[in-house]
Amino acid sequence: MNQRGFTLIELMVVLVIIGIASAAISLSIKPDPLRLLRQDTERLSQLLQVAQAEARADGRPITWRADAKGFRFSRRSDNGLSLDTFQGDPQLRPRPWQSTPMHIDIEPRQTLVLDAEWINPPLRVLLSDGQHRLSLQRDAAGVLRVVSAP
């Protein structure tokens, strides 16, 4: 007599394989929050260096502002009457954070202004996604580095 169908053990093995595959897919789809925060912090470090170089070359200060959703650079136009927000600039255009909502603390002041000076006061920008915290620190020589915050 020839029986058709699957045994219980064969069905269990198939269900285990499906479970493992779906777990692997769901883990790869959800990004690591610390990795996203680190990418945001490193991208900010690079863009602050670009903005600092632009302020030195142009002679006009550039202001950096951020909120929970993103950040932007701005400076006064040549005539001083309007505000240039770098909308068409490929590097300094407004950008969203990858990890939102983002909490930002700036020490020692709340408004970060990049000017033409070659020697800048030390600066610390603390970025937090609610779970993790990273600090972007600038020393007096203008070197920016990403540091894990306590």
TrEMBL record:
Keywords: Cell inner membrane, Cell membrane, Membrane, Methylation, Transmembrane, Transmembrane helix. Residues 41-134 form the General secretion pathway GspH domain. It is found in: Cell inner membrane. Coiled coil: none annotated. The chain crosses the membrane at residues 6-29. One of its GO terms (biological process) is protein secretion by the type II secretion system. It is a single-pass membrane protein. Its main location: membrane. InterPro entries: N_methyl_site (IPR012902), Pilin-like (IPR045584), T2SS_GspH (IPR022346), T2SS_protein-GspH (IPR002416), TypeII_GspH (IPR049875). Belongs to the GSP H family. This is Type II secretion system protein H. It comes from Pseudomonas rhodesiae.
